[in-house]
Amino acid sequence: MIDVRFKYHRQQVEEPVVSIIIPAFNEQEVILEFHRRLLEVIDKLSEFVFELLYVNDGSQDQTLGLLRELIEDDHRINVLDLSRNFGKEAAMTAGIDHVRGDAVIILDADLQDSPELIPKMLDSWRQGYDVVCMQRASRDGESFLKKFTARMFYLLMGRVGEVRVPENVGDFRLMNRAVIEALRTLPERTRFMKGVFAWVGFKTCTLPYHRDARYAGETKWNYWKLWNFALEGLTSFTVAPLKIASYVGILTSLAALGFGAVILIKTLFIGDPVPGYPSLMVVILFLGGLQLMAIGIVGEYLGRIFIESKQRPVYLKKEYYQGRSQAELSKPLNADETKKVANQ
Ligand code: UDP
Ligand code: MG
What we know:
This protein is an alpha/beta fold. Helices cover 51% and strands 17% of the residues. It has 12 helices and 8 strands. An 8-stranded mixed β-sheet has the order 7-5-6-4-1-2-3-8, with helices on both faces. Strand 2 (49-56), helix 3 (63-72) and strand 3 form a beta-alpha-beta unit. Helix 6 runs parallel beside helix 9 and helix 10 packs antiparallel against helix 11 (277-309). It is elongated and about 90 Å long. 27% of the residues are buried. The protein binds uridine-5'-diphosphate and magnesium ion.
């Protein structure tokens, strides 16, 4: 009986399913306005079936409560509640692991990524692109320092990184099923998503967009977090700093040899009446500093190996709330589920 109904359902749903992942951490001020604007956009796109997945990343405010009210009367909405705040990268990973769409879009909850751009992204997807990246043409509401440091990061990443991370492309993007499947196969724990996204490749196009200022609430990033994020990005995607340490080491040794020769010649031919305490001090401090730096770089990598070797999950799921008539959404989750339904 169910088997027949299932088949019937499958024939009914021909529209592609589009999943939207929204990581949210303490976003009570914006979440309802965000949702209203998102619905306005997707309600007009009748040629797609939508699935919205809010990932509540351990919010301490009313975010979860508000989201749970939303799912009460909309079967398209699901809420994945994580056990604590794991950070946006982990929240996105959690979302990627739980969506079923043929195309998946990641959106910030603070309205910096306009939901109104979704139709444009879907157009590019239908033109045959696997990944549609949204590139910030402007960064409203961001300080000069943030823009400057971002610029430096992309420069450095472009120089030494093994994958090219496109500049000013954030997490706002569309990916098709194949890309999502590819992302799910990556086991690493330290997740620098911009790098991971760039690493998987696929046919990509980039659309420029105007990035608005945050609608309300505050950014969850401070400079210390951003610095750590940049370090993570660099060390997860390149081993070049490890090589830098040895090159700098070789160069300093050569310089020290040259300096030694100069001293020797000077003493032999000119004579050196005052032993050079200051120069000695400078050399010792300089080499000491270099050594500490090199050890620090090694430590960064060792730390990452340590974290990877513990094999802990990237996030922990507390609860998965489904919008009401979710069972009606007839697209099966995966092959196993299809089998289960067919066997019933
Ligand atoms: N976010 C999250 N977990 C965190 C920090 C942020 O899920 O630990 C979400 C946040 O709710 C928002 C998005 O990630 O939807 C972007 O965060 P934010 O606006 O603070 O970053 P920015 O836009 O300043 O880079
Ligand atoms: Mg933001």
